[in-house]
Structure formats: C-alpha cells, structure tokens
Amino acid sequence: MEHSDLLVDWSRAQFALTALYHWLFVPLTLGLTFIVAFMETLYVKTGDETWKRTTKFWMGLLAINFAIGLATGIIMEFEFGTNWSNYSWIVGDIFGAPLAIEGLMAFFMESTFFAVMFFGWDKVSKKMHLTSTWLVALGSNLSALWILVANGWMQHPVGMHFNPDSARNEMENFWEVFFNPNAVSKFLHTISSGYVLASLFVIAISSWYLLKKRDTQFARRSIIVAATFGLTASLFLITTGDESAHQVAQNQPMKLAAMEGLYDGEHRAGIVAFGVLNEKKEIGDALDEFYFSFQIPGALSFLGYHDLNAFVPGINDLVYGNEKFNLISTQEKMNQGKMAIQALKDYKKYKKEGMTQKAQEALKNFEKYQHFMGYGYLKDPRDAVPPVALVFYSFHTMVGLGTLFLLLFILTLYYAMTNEMHNKKWLLYASLFSLPLGYVAQESGWIVAEVGRQPWAIQDFLPVGMAASNIAASSVMITFWLFAVLFTGLLIAEIKIMLKQIKIGPEGH
C-alpha cells in the first residue's frame, strides 16, 4: 500500500526526532555504567572512602541520565506500532524477536540490579553491591546488543524467508540473524563510541572542578580512570570502524559511495580527508564532485575491500549500472521488482480462484525476481540515492572528531598521571568543550547509519514509503510537535538537575 509523500515524510521526521533525542542519553549510559563499576571496584579493593564518594557522585549522574533516557526509548518502540504498522506486520516475526529478548532478559536484569546499585549501599554487603553494579553495566550493554541485532538486520536482512501466502518475512535461522556480520560490527562500534562519550563526560566535568580549584583529588582520580577507559575505547573504536566500513562496502555500496561523495567508481579509490562538495553536482552530469578535496589514495579501496587496488563503485555505477563490473542498473532492478510484485498478485489471485497450475507458475516467476521486489516500489532510479551531502559531512565530522578525542585522551592521561593537569588551563578548557563535540559525533554517526541507507526501511527489500501506517498525516504532524516539546523539556530537566548536582559536588552529594 502506497502512502502520500506528506505522511511518509512526517513519519520519518517523527521517528528521527525520537531517535536523535534518545541517542543523547543511551551512549552515556553504556559507558558510564562501566566507569562507575571500575571506580567501585577500586573502592572495594582499597577500602579508600574517596573512591566511594567518587563512585556515588558519578552514579547519581548516571541515575538521572538513565531515567530520562528510558522515557524516550519507550516512545520510540511504540512508534513501530503507531507510525510503522506495515513494517511491523511484514517483518515483525524477525525484528520483534531480538527486541522481545532485550526486554525480557537484558532490560529486566539492568533495571532490577539498578535498584540494588542505587539504593543498596547500606543494605547489602560490599561485594554484593559491587556485583550489582557490574550487572547493571552488563545489562545495559546487553540491551544495546539486542537492539543493534535488530537494527543490523534492517541494514542487511539475513536468515529469513518471504512467505507469499501471508506476505510476511519469517525467520528461518535465529543464529544467522544474531551473528549477522553487520550486526556484530555495528554493536561493537556503537558501544565503543558510547564508552568514548562517557569518558569525555567524566573528563569534562572533572576539568571544571580543576578550573574552579575544588575537589581536586576527586577530579584527578576521575580523569585518570576516564582517560584510560576512553583511550582504550578509542583504539577499539578505530578497529570496529574499519570492520563497519567493510560491511557497508559489501552490503550497502550506495551508502559507502555517499559517505565519500563518490559518483564515478574507480580503482584505488581514496578517502577524502577534507573536502567541500559541489552542491550543484547531480547524478549523471559531468560536474566535479568537489570544489576542492584532499584525498588519501587507495584508502577507501582498502577500507571497503581490504585491497588497495579494488574497484569501488560510485553512485552513477549503482544507478545506471556498469557491465564491466556486473553492476545492474537501478532501472533494471525496478523492472524486475515490478515483475515480482505482479507475479505475487497473480499467485494470490489464481490460488484464490483454485487455478493451481497457474498459481504455481506465478509463484515460480515471483521466486525468480523477488530479490529485487523492493525496487518495484520506487518511482525513479534516483530515489535509490540517499542525501549525499548530509551523509558525507556527517561521516567526516564523526571521523574527524573521533581522531581529536583520541589525542585528547592521550594528553589528559599523561598530565593527570604526572599531576600537571591543573596547570594546563588550555587542556582543561579543551576537555570541557569536548563534551558537546562528543554528542555531535554521536548524532553524526547515527545519521550516517540511518540516513545513509535511505530510501530503505529494510535494505533493498522494503522502502519506507511502503512501511508507514495508513493514518492521517495531520495526526503525525501533531504528535511530532508534542514530542518535540516533551523531549526538549526532558533534556532541559536533565541538564538542570545534573548541573545542580555538579555544583553540589562529591563532598555534599
């Protein structure tokens, strides 16, 4: 069922709004739970009350973030039923399984032990409390695992079979879905980015204390733990980023081309270290892609295919096809997709009328062309191209800031270990202002992952235009603005509460 462009656009906007706000809270929880667990471990091992106060302070900020993030997450899951009911019907048997496991196993464990962690300081033993803290960290990251398994499947659908009788995808192999290489790389890259953000969070607040010349011992210790954690996470982030790019090249070549603004494929393709896109550039024209750019030769070929001389297809190759490299044009995929859609309609019609032989012939035709069925719903070949500028700049913002954070962790760890951090005001201010940049990097990564795969709700299978609910566009518009006000209010509330707790400090917490 096709829906109006207005309805689809507002449904996409509402889900993007919810996801963007939700992602302000999730990565901090993923990393801060582990930092708190490390600090409490030091308290239990040493018996030093300073570590206990340090742990309780950061645990208080974690609790604030956890509570507000929970509200946005619940709303986002409901939107699958309200705004994307066709999507939920077609792929719910597969997509719903990891989400159900997340709620029954990971979130249940996380929320149960969170109560013990936060309220059980004087009610359970030290070891039991420490165990609860580590289980909260494990539970929050297990929640991310199952959610990203579901998201990874959207990016690269595997382990399924399309049932022509029910017009639904059914799971054939749970373990193939779970160990989907795209899901594995996405999970590892996402949680490591969350660890980086949490480290920036702790370092930024601790730097503020050093600038104010208060709670200096607490601040120095916090920086050492966070910088060590952040440096380790940053190095791991580079590794997982390499594997993520490799998976994108194998399964989402259009996304990779958009990430690098690559219109015409080439051997030994380079990564754009810095460049400004030509906004007048269109698919198929002869204009240059960039006003200017600085590239690292062969890096994109190596990143995507682990071969410096590999051919990387560009946007034009993927839209218009390239016989030399056996690339089918989008128009041909659309033609085959339309044949698959028509064959499916004929199968259901003949089966209903009891014409068994014709129904089987129609089914064979459907099976022949079903691989490109999703393309049959596109109206124009150019619809298969995501917003190139948004994806390109988001990707390079994410990579550039990630490199900057790696350098920051090295410097802060060195000067904190040598007890010189308080004398480096330039580094303290750099650490303080790195926190908002950390959130910019997080949101940029989300944009690359989700906008880069447009127009697909399920890669190459289900376009977003077919996934939306059949509801009035005005309803989505109203709820969009209601959610915008609600989420903004929650964000302001979190910032105000956190600032109040930070001003009070660890001694008065």
Could you explain the architecture of this structure?
With 509 residues, the chain is mostly helical. Helices cover 71% and strands 6% of the residues. The chain contains 16 helices and 8 strands. A two-stranded antiparallel ribbon has the order 1-2. α2 packs antiparallel against α16, α6 packs antiparallel against α7 and α13 runs antiparallel to α14. The mean pLDDT is 91.
Summarize the structure.
The protein is mainly α and 509 residues long. 71% of the residues lie in helices and 6% in strands.
> How does the overall form come out from the CA principal axes?
globular
Note the quaternary state here: single chain
Q: Which stretches are low in confidence, meaning pLDDT under 50 for 5 or more residues running?
A: none
The main pleated sheet reads as:
2 strands, antiparallel
Strand order, biggest sheet?
A: 1-2
Look at the helices and sheets and give the structural class.
mainly alpha
The overall average pLDDT, rounded, is 91
Q: Report, as a whole number of angstroms, the end-to-end distance.
A: 56 Å
Q: What is the ordering of alpha helices and beta strands?
A: HHHHEEHHHHEEEHEHHHHHEEHH
Alpha plus pi helix count: 16
Helical fraction: over 70%
